[in-house]
Amino acid sequence: MRRACHHPGPGCLCSCTGSCCAAPCSSPGHQQQETEPPERPERRATGALLGEEGGYGWRWRVPSGIKRLRRLYCNVGIGFHIQVLPNGKVTGVHNENRYSLLELSPVERGVLTLFGVRSGLFIAMSDKGKLYGSGNFNDECKFKENLLANNYNAYESAAYPGMYIGLSKTGKTKRGNRVTPTMTMTHFLPRI
């Protein structure tokens, strides 16, 4: 715990110039306030449990970690970025746009969520392998991020193992049960 001087500045007689050590400041008129060191993100407690009410945004219902803003690029056909539209449709788009910006948030080791920043929807996969945008966080929104030998990533559904996110050469989503990680349509490059 550090002590911060309440009265730093040119008139301060304190030898510590604003950040006091454990010894109390002997200057007349000075008061010291104990302050906690800033909280480090990796030690922050996880968010509230799923299903709790309270009016908080989704960020409080998902375990926190280092969030990355990325666009997922798939080099199939003419090359597509995956996007989540406000109506819940997930497609591929050739040019970057505001709906292709995703927030990749870790949920547990090797598992993450893909959140459309502009649309406010999670990318989710149904039990039939169809991709859709979900307004609520659930198990269908979790994906395992697998690093491939060609330095691309494949995203496998955590709820339904063996199902992968994939885009066709025209930019439409492929059903997760119809693709494998050896197909280039499941290879995504996270771009800034």
UniProtKB/TrEMBL annotation:
SMART domains: FGF
Organism: Dissostichus mawsoni (Antarctic cod)
InterPro entries: Fibroblast_GF_fam (IPR002209), IL1/FGF (IPR008996)
Gene3D superfamilies for the chain: 2.80.10.50
GO annotations of cellular component type: extracellular region
Family named by the database record: Belongs to the heparin-binding growth factors family.
Protein name, as recorded: Fibroblast growth factor
Pfam families per record: FGF
GO biological process, one term: cell differentiation
Keyword Nucleus among UniProt keywords: no
GO molecular function: growth factor activity
Glycosyltransferase as UniProt keyword: no
Localization of this protein: Secreted
